[in-house]
């Protein structure tokens, strides 16, 4: 310590004070808490100066957990069928945790990133998208290392592979070799901010619709189409989401838009025990009803009081502040 202080002077004392503050303000390391998602390690370093980079990479190798079991909750006759899928299970299954459009600007491609949950993937496999029940046989499946792509020869539980797609796959979709499974755990939270989309050039309507559909499927922002007609609405948790989507629409789809404030400040996804009860609610709030990018019915509100009033008026309607990306509504408000 004395040698380091003599070599670096005041910089050493400053570093030790910062280290003492960081250690004192943080809980002690608990690997089990980390595996449970209750603790996050923080690393200090500099990529520009190549300081601490190897330590971070080594820690990722040493600390990262192996693939674990996933729970499938499939709705059958409106009843959940729960099943645990182990990584060692022979049947292939995976979940789409990210969809990214226009990764290659020259080809306008879309990549569905799939985390393999069980089994083994090999080229040419016939797979099924659980949400739609449609089969697919991906012709281009790749892995990524920075901007470099490599064709996948095989993949196992824990691996991440990218399917080049042209539609039909959304964020949260479960893909299997035919087994009826539905993984959950990717929630959509009800937006707290809304903007109205105004297209500057009406001749670009097709491009706008395509862009909003794809960005909505990505989860970049929540897109709502009012049932009563009118301009599309964007819902977000923070202002930055609006700015990012506005930029991407112009840069990737040549759809220049203006965002205008609107009266809505929240949304709740709506379900009911019977179709008749749902129709009655929709008829009472025609101007407040909308469908999101996944086609899920939502009630738009201007204040929390709106929701409470609607709940009191229609006690049999279920108001959900979040839903699964797979389309399964969860948790009543």
From TrEMBL:
Compartment(s): Cytoplasm
GO cellular component, one term: cytosol
Keywords (A to Z) from UniProt: Cytoplasm, GTP-binding, Nucleotide-binding, Protein biosynthesis
Xref: Gene3D superfamilies: P-loop containing nucleotide triphosphate hydrolases, Peptide chain release factor 3, domain III
Gene Ontology molecular function terms on file: GTP binding; GTPase activity; guanosine tetraphosphate binding; translation release factor activity, codon nonspecific
Family matches, as InterPro entries: EF-G-like_DII, EFG_III/V, P-loop_NTPase, PrfC, RF3_C, RF3_dom_3_sf, Transl_B-barrel_sf
Annotated Elongation factor G-like domain residues: 92-177
Domain of life according to the entry: Bacteria
Pfam families per the UniProt record, alphabetical: EF-G_D2, RF3_C
Domain Peptide chain release factor 3 C-terminal: 183-310
Family affiliation: Belongs to the TRAFAC class translation factor GTPase superfamily. Classic translation factor GTPase family. PrfC subfamily.
Name of this chain's protein: Peptide chain release factor 3
